[in-house]
């Protein structure tokens, strides 16, 4: 039976922390430990932790150097086969979702499900890759959502802890190295696992973009990076063209005409 380490980090978000804790401690799956890493909150978060301390395996409240430093503290204390990072404000969507995720799952480095978030006043289910092995190109353009992923604890021994020099993309950096470059096996489960609180630092798009560029230049060979940058530019052009339905319709028809001419030439040879 897989042992899971659920790690929650928090800083001055007592209301979100309570919601997160309550979603964890009601799980029907029992073979997990729960770790709460608080960054020295002064808003009543520590009092919330005390309310549930008999349900929490390990907790600490002290100043830290940022999100990934707090996560690394949790990893160093984790005893499970897999780690799940469920930050305060995010919560598990039903009492049986952990059990559903881990029931009969094949051995893999990363197991991941779906996240749910609110967009323009309605709840949207977001799925990633849906069952196929994730490639380097996938991770160049996107990521695996952190809270809906179970990451094998041994990966942190193999590839290192989270890069504390980054503020919001260090989890993506780990995926890029472990899965994109080293082909660690991933398993997808079509289960709505986590509700994501979109009000955190990860919503900072400019910071996300600048940190991704930094990581790509650190991690990818120059020749691969050039190819992928060219692919990304071409992809953006196509997406913009598709927004203009008149131009896109014209392009498609030109393509069909060229295809028919080439096919006719082949037949006449």
TrEMBL record:
<keyword id="KW-0808">Transferase</keyword>
<dbReference type="InterPro" id="IPR001173">
    <property type="entry name" value="Glyco_trans_2-like"/>
</dbReference>
<protein>
    <submittedName>
        <fullName>Glycosyltransferase family 2 protein</fullName>
        <ecNumber>2.4.-.-</ecNumber>
    </submittedName>
</protein>
<dbReference type="GO" id="GO:0016757">
    <property type="term" value="F:glycosyltransferase activity"/>
</dbReference>
<dbReference type="Pfam" id="PF00535">
    <property type="entry name" value="Glycos_transf_2"/>
</dbReference>
<dbReference type="InterPro" id="IPR029044">
    <property type="entry name" value="Nucleotide-diphossugar_trans"/>
</dbReference>
<keyword id="KW-0328">Glycosyltransferase</keyword>
<feature type="domain" description="Glycosyltransferase 2-like">
    <location>
        <begin position="5"/>
        <end position="118"/>
    </location>
</feature>
